[in-house]
Fold these 4 entries.
Entry 1:
Amino acid sequence: MTFRTEADIAAYEKVPVGERLLLRNVLDLLQDSAARHSNRVAIRALAGTGPNDEARDVTYAEILKRTIQTANMLTAHGIGHGDTVTILLPSLAETFPALWGAEIGAIANPVNYFLNASQIAGIMKEAGSRALIAADASLFPEIWPKVEEIRKTIPGLAVFRVGGSGKSEVGIFEYESETAAQPGDTLISPKKLERDTLAALFHTGGTTGLPKLARHTHGALALAAWTNTLNFGLEPGAVMINPMPQFHVGGSIMGGLAPIAAGWTVVLPTPLGARNPNVVRDWWSLVERHQVAIAGAVPTTLAAVMNVTREGHDLSSLKVFLSGGSTVPVELIRRIESEIGVPVVEGYGMTEVHCYSTMNPMHGECRPGSVGLRLPYTEVRIADVAPDGTLKGDCVLGTIGHVLMRGPQVTPGYLDKRHDKGAMLADGWLDSGDLGRLDKDGYLWLTGRSKDLIIRGGHNIDPIVIEEALVRHPAVETAAAVGLPDTYAGELPMAFVQLRPDASATPEELREWCGKEIPERAAVPVQVVPIPVMPLTGVGKIFKPALRLDATQRAFEAALAPLKAEGAKAEVTVRSDPNYGLLAVVRASGAPGWSRQAIETKCAELLGGFQIRHAVEFG
């Protein structure tokens, strides 16, 4: 079943969700898929990107067996149904059985292995982790040294090492031999798996801030896996390439559980995925060699692979690009569709809704710049929300407000109920923290964020970590971090500072300070700008919208520099816009050698990569 319009979705929903989807949990889903596609390849894990590099194929029957063996291994080591198991695994053949086995036998907690050891340990303590499944240094060198540090801070932790030497140590067990010793056809201690049974704890809310653990339930995971693939209409056996990490809902649900539910084959392009430069370099040969039909990637990866030559590659298998994590620049969408001839399906979702909640219809009208129509059984509304979380009412159609979602795909809340405030609203509505508008046909258009998160290439950065680091500098009185628009990453972190009276510090000095004080490299601001006075609200809080406007102005002025250097006269002004949130208006005037069309073309080239829209005016 595919959907072309919002009316199609509404008609489909006339049958209650419980009658549409009989699968209640992750185990039901895997058993159903294994029964229908037993010998089909479910996961293909690539060691490298070359034609002679090892590729491990795991069938649907094997995935189910290894998942059950993982659940039984945890039970055999005294890990109970209510205990939490943290997963620190890159994209390996073992990653999905480890994740799903933990969900079925206990509670899974996949964590970003690029965080430092103290951050990972903090998340594990918040989750109450009793066990850890992690990659040996021979598979992924960066993870195991962190495991050694974590063990010192969490006594009694049971560690299962993937890809180790085969010899167990005190408190460390070899995953392969331990799972192989367990039955793979039945659970030795079945966990009661109802729709509302807790399956996983995914950390969200900015990976550099305090951990917020969103609860994922079995029923919601099964529903998300089903609805997230309905849009495509691809037959079993279709191949999807998944360059996303599995600690992210995009990599684990849309790139894992959903294609398995649909009978597809998932290609994991090396343990590092898109972070491996060879994956980007050899992207088109991977598509050709593995007959990829659906290519999922965040906007930064899409932009990178479009700069790689496609000459000599047969791309006839490719049917669609799927993207999310941050807004895809409209010019990038148009370029892909015109040069390759396949649609770019941009969607929108978050950890709290178990992945996607909206998508552009693959077989209907894809509207560049929008994130599409709501998925079946997920409600989306645009509302006026008071600062205390009170719902004041719906916004007029076409006007900007808070994006709210409701339905069985929405999380029941965070592990720490204090995080529910301001997010989990009355009558089951979730406030996404994003701003947007709905058009008359039901398409959602995002225009900004009511929250402060900076999203760098789909990676969440909490600005408070940057701000706290800067105010520790003896010359800084106040600091505010915002996203600097970027044509590649979407946003980069930058900061504004107000220095103490009679104090001095150069921008470079402050950046170097951040590099030492902030543990995660991605969160170090690319610019630190001293300003005379920090803009404040009427109650004395820093007014970040003014700083975001300033940052956007700086980004667009810098991007226009090549045009002006070539003699064209053009000035840019960034302003608020009722349709797009922000709009960059370029005012151009005639100059020798520059026609209007040439200026418009050059502006599209220089500015089209920004998520923020631009318009060119002459006068």
Entry 2:
Amino acid sequence: MSDTEPPVSGVGTALVSPRRATALIWLLPVAAALLGVWLIWRSLADASIAVTLSFDDGAGITPGQTPVRYAGITVGHVSDMSLQEDLTGVEVTLAINRSAEPLLREQTRFWLVRPQVSLAGITGLETLVSGNYIALRPGEGPPRTRFQALTEEPRPDASGPGLHLVLTADSLGSLTVGAPVFYKQVEVGSVQNHALRRDGSGVDIHVLVEPEYRDLVNRSSRFWNASGVNIRGGLRGFEVQTGSLLSLLRGGILFHTPDEGAEPVLSGTEFELFRDHRQAAAGLQVELKVPEPDGIQAGRTEIRYRGYRLGRIDRLTLDPEDPTRGAVATARLSPEAESYLLDDAHFWVVRPRLSLEGVSGLDALLGGPYIELSPGREGQPRRSFVLAQQPPPEGTEGGLLLRLQSPSLGSLNRGSPVYYRQFQVGRVQDVLLEREGSGVEVRVLIDEEHAHLVSSRSRFWNASGVDVSGGLDGIQLRTESFMALLAGGIAFSTAEGGEAVANQHRFSLHSSRSEAEQQGVLVDLYLPSARGLKVGSPLRYQGIDVGAITELELAPDSGGVVARLRIDREPDRIARQDSRFWVVQPRLGLLETRNLDTLVGGAYLAVDPGRGPAGRRFTALADAPVDAGTEGMPVILEAPRLGTIRRGLKVYYRDVPVGVVAGHRLANPADRVEIELRIDPEHAHLVRRDSRFFSVSGVQVDAGLFRGVRVDVGSVEALFSGGIGFASPSGDTPPAEPGARFPLAPRAEPGWLEWEPGLSPDEQR
């Protein structure tokens, strides 16, 4: 049959397709690989963390048995132990569960817990059954796996629960760590730690009052050592005092809170730990400096308040700093006197005294001198005072306290009377020497019912002795009362139209009535020269006459002139220690012309009032201060040299004055110059952190062979006087902070003056 023969009829053609069945056998390796990865991950997740501890010795530690516990839960165990390389201790390797990894920080502490029995108590009792274990207390810091173990359990942190207090004592006595703290014989806390002070003056004892008892302690609480037996005796018999039997064996501390409504305390508050209950009852220790210790006896001299005994002198020693200044007395006062011991409290010696004012201190004739307390009513708590020889003025409970300033004291003393129309209305409360030694301050107390007699227009003068005044018309003698003539005193008068004054108001104390009746306050001003000035030349503030020169004389050292000024208007505001005075004279020149008004009226003095305490002696400035009466943002420029820059030059922005050069100085080290600018407050927003400062003094010439000659001249004012300019490239940069520093360029770089930052004058800093 040929190849072209047709197929046999009725027989179909077979079609062959490839077989595509999945090979399941390959899934087994993949599943095995995934299972292996999972097992490895589980192994790593469950693997313990190796931690190394250093102990002094390995007693009580067994590898594979000693557990590691935190909060009663086992978080690991000891896996290995070996000697250290230097043989000074042992290294213990711990296997810590992965779940406890957050506990392992730099400040975490480890220690071995074992049973201990002492008079302070029994600790670690649970280890008698379960065996020793290593405890940990977590701390802060970065992760860490190597630690130095502690020899005992660390004391609770002061930030932990409860009230943590510090008791100060001269010695520790029989107190030990763990000794109880009792309140009404109930244990409410324990001694946590004790340490010797660095200067060796005593010990600090740290105690913990449990949280549920912390409200029992407040500012009035008194702590004392209840350890041992306290025996006192004398001709009248013996007194034996002990605490509880527990405190007798273990040592302990007792405390009592007499005033339950007193201010509560916080952790870290310090209390004094008294030797015994008797000393704690006296309670407050006060130090008195005694310039004249005659008659003062330790253990006998009492301290009283209106006849009530508050305490007595415990110890009297010579002043350790300078024995010639007297003695130092240590007194113990009843706790009820604590509220009296403020800054203005006074202690003085009561002795029999006979004076023009009468007889006082008769009750001290039989019992000897004693110390009287005048309670304080203002200020902070205080524990050190000076024992005065005279009582404070009467009537300190109420009245108007004034402060009078005078060059000298005269015959005034504490207790000297204050008169108004020869009627006594107050007394001198105290006399103090000013710190700089330039005068004295006399504090007077005006009786409350007469306080309305004092106003801002009152004038005070020393009424001691005789006031003599006169001239060609005759001589006038004036005195106050006979008592003031003998014992000294102060008098005052008040003109109409004044305003009421408050406590601590300051007045000048004039030497005589005639001086006081001349209105105003006298001050002395030192000048290198009086050129252009004369008696009668005015003192001005912001163009208003506030005083005048009343006297000109050579200075004692012949190095200048002293001008005596009488300030008539606002003397309390102007006569301040930091006020600034200067001479205003005409200035004529090519660079500067000012003060032309003095060509007609003559030179005068100007003042910029300060804000400090009152002052009476000043030194004039060489020129008007740049910042007088103005405020501005300070900016510091740094330059290699000063050049033509000087104080008073203006600072320009787009040729508009926006500030002034306030001063200049050498830097430290002296390798550059610092120039201080003051930018006007309304223009301070123009100074940005990327601003550029440059000198605009004179004419700037830029020439070249191909670019020709360029001459830059600022404003006419800057051409003659010079100045400093600045430009800011962008308004997106934050404003500069006060005191910001910038380099000073010798000239403006190309393009600086073309910057257009678009700064808004309404921008808030």
Entry 3:
Amino acid sequence: MRKSLLRLFNTEVGLRRSSVILLLILVGVGLSAALHSFVKPFWSDEIFTVMMCRLPNASQIWKALDDVVDTNPPIYHLVCRLTRQIAWDDHLGYRLPSIIGLLGTIFFLYHILSRRVDHLSALVGATFVLCTQLAVYASEARPYALMVGCISGAIFAWQRIDDSRLYYLLFGFTLAAAASVHYYAILVWPAFVIAETTVWLFGRRFRIGAWAALFVGATPLLFFAELILRLRQYGQNFWAPASFSQVLWADSWLFNFGSNLLGGAVATWGLTIMVAVTAMFVYFNFGKRAISGSSGRRKISDIVLPLEECVLVLMLLLLPLIEVAAAKVSHGGMMYRYMMPTVLGGALAVGYLASRVPRAVNGLLLMVICMNYGLSSAGDVKKLLTGSLLEPRVAAAEEVKAILTELHGSDLPIVISSGLQYLPLAYYTPADSSRRLYALTDVRSALAFTGTDSADLALLALRRYYPLQIEEYNDFAARHREFLLVSENKGRFDWWPARLSHDGHTLRLLTQVGDSQVFKVTLRP
């Protein structure tokens, strides 16, 4: 088997065959991500994207972002508007940029790696991102996958920057594109700055074009400075403050190895495996370099990577530490998905290390990675074959329908306890039923009960642009002394039962529909 793999991925023939395999992988991943995007209902954050994209024009989008309806740059929403126009379905159209981001990431990683290692190892490293959360977010109408795709394009251009001046332009453009779809893309800049400084100090080359491209890549933040300052005001009590514990557990969340083959518990191996990968990468690319330098001899076969590329990969692997530290200093929020570019460091490190193991092992790794990703689409393929693709979307509206059926004859307003649960229910429930659905806000009480007012502020901003039934609690209570309260009794944003009980109001459990409890609330005089 080893000999056959050697023949398969050897010289020019190997290049052609690996290119064909890469194309097949891209087609398969694209179809799988598109199918999952078509099937899966929107969740609350995605609905913010959808509603932003449905505003009449760019000036309205800018105005809504100035009111902090969403936290992403306007360019991302304009891209989603464009892709929605070329797709026949809302769910696929708004998620298409994320699919493109994943495919672009695999494509660029393969070409980055194949410049330094054999084609089979490059395929293993490139497809490694399918074992990460990037593959999950490739089917969401949020900018993380597209941001990672832009950053992978920047690494591709930076690696080839000495080949042609066109790569200077591509480097600056991809960096600017990354910052234009997610503000936190700027936190990748230290990795490029330190890597380019390595070229300057150790390679004795000051590449003014690369430094100019880095500056150009950061200019979107100057253009969007007003919106970013508004976000800082909004984020004073953000629901996910930065914590150094996130540095420790980021890899366990980002690298969910084998979760489809062996179960979700395998995802907890992420930290252990990535620590091992990082340690081996440092040993082979820094430790051996130091040993060969001290002995006066250098084995070219052992040191295949330029020092600046080693530094870039290591900085990407350390990105969670950089991002948390930056968020702490700037008093910004931090979530694991903001750290998504870290998967690029993991993929590159795995690809470089794969070149040091037998090709038969790499062939097996490639098959396992593809099988693990393929199993994530098994349920969607089954729905396709049985003609039930739209079943999950229909189910998203069934909860309200079931509640109305259980409470036949009651005309009381229905309050959804969690504002984040309210948005999907209001989106999928038919208009004649959704008129009875309400979300309540109380910024001061939300801060007292949950430690954050993020969800309430976002809902209040959103209602200025869409006729949603979002009301401040005091205004609603002045008109409705009795109402129904739907609570799943989980999550920090489902706090209204505790608040109402604390204030001495009466909550009587009427029924339970699925995971939701339905209370009749009677406000005390």
Entry 4:
Amino acid sequence: MCGIAGVFYRARSVDRDRLVAMREILVHRGPDDAGDLVEGPLGLAHRRLSIIDLGGGHQPMETPDGRFAIVYNGEIYNYQELKRELENAGAAFRTHSDTEVILHLHARFGDDAVKRLNGIFAYALWDRAAKRLLLVRDRAGIKPLYLAATSDGVAFASEIKALLESDLVGRTLNEAAVPEYLVFRQVAGPRNLLKGVEALPPGTMIAVVDGRAGDPQRYWSARQSIAPFKGTYEDAVDATDKALNAAVRRQLMADVPLGTFCSGGIDSSLTTAIAARHSSHQINTFSVGFHEADWDESRYARMASEACRSRHHELRIDESEFAELLPGLVWNHDLPLNFANSVHIYAVSRLAREHVTVVLTGEGADELFGGYPRYYIPRMLQTLNALPRPLRAGLLGLLQLTPDSRARKLVSYAKRPPYEALLFNATNVDPSLVRRALGNRIALSTEFRDQCIREALASGLDLVTTLSLLDFETYLVSILNRQDKMSMATSIEARVPFLDNDLIDLARSLPLEYKQTYRHRKRVLKDVALRYLPAEIVNRRKSGFGVPLQAWFAGDGAMAKLLMDNLQLPRTRELFDTGVLERVVAEHKRGRDHSEFLWGVLNLSLWRQAFGV
């Protein structure tokens, strides 16, 4: 895994010192090697974390004829098969790296080469003959790639902080994106909170010629239809088992020590169990927990470790350490942290780095196999709305009194237009609160999300599949960005077997009833898991990877102090209506949970301080 950066000016030469500064701020992504290439207006830079072909993968790398040069971040899991195919067609290889395979593949197939790659990647390919730079990102957005296109040229990098070392990007808040961040914990699509910087969308490539970026071109999209699975439910269980085993086996390739993040949930535990079966060595597993017993799930992680016979390592984070780590991790993340458990992922990555260089994780399973309980909400609303009004009102009244947050969420959506149950499914922050807190100055923009939902419904997808698609293009991208930034901050490569090309395609082809019914979530995946894991792990209630923010913000400890200090800063008071913020804090301390909103405000403040925005 690596860090890449570069510039392509329109009418001036590259300053190598500035290019090196872009490269060196990414040293955590690649502490093992560094390289750069400067050719007039073009500059490419690379930091390397050596995983495969430890001595032969130096970048930038070029084809033997000198036409193509590449800087690349990622792993291509099918590179050995592709290499054999290319060798049979006459290609001669000088290294054992997957980087060289990408070069030869483009030399033979042009831009269509990317469609043949199964892996996690972001790369920049320079074609000297055409004077054309091609920027490419993997299907799911597992590896990040940002760019800034201006009248002077284009800069790109694995992390935004590297773009800030160029002379093409300023440090200006994109205020129009603030409401979306506060409501959804992320800004969907290309734009983000830093004005002038965009993320290259997953499954997309963009060509830069003469320092001018063209329009992004989709080479793959989850919105494209796929042939439906033909087979019984039992056939689907077998197919999923086979595809997951193949994905894990492919992703075990490494010339360095490897382990798994194993939280004790079904996804990471299943990944661990299969990895243990295919590994020639005892697997190392890593988990992180809480001192607060109600939030700690360490016993399930230990149970999974025992079932898989792994060498298990665990740690716990308390409130003081959490508050101490948080500001620095906002800098590592490039943007305000979407998820509070990012701190724990960093901590467990730091622990893992003492033993391994690569970890396998369980991200992607919930989006692909219908795992989120909130996916029930639109379907249940349809049933509720069909009831006679008195019966419906009585049932909603009873649900309002339950302590279950999911039931109360259902009640809140029953009072809104049906479309909002889709649009706001992944958030617990009231948009009207955000609007008031911003002084009614900035409107909430949901254009990217609206487009995704409209296209899904127009194509005839059911409500659950529509939500899965929306999450795949928004929520999952933010989860993957969190995983990448927190693990790479410790020079750990994180791999995601559930987002293997073949497994993505299989999951998308399955009918809804194979994935989720009113009685079962991740139905087909759980039946696979029962072949490898104790039923107590497979059948336990999904709890997510929560953090006790509600209690921390309502108390008088380190996190409450950090929050109050940041609410008093001039940047915060200029952006927000301080009266609204004070009322929210007071309500939270009296027992009304505003922890998600307060988390967003706090992280926005920490980010602006870290980057001078």
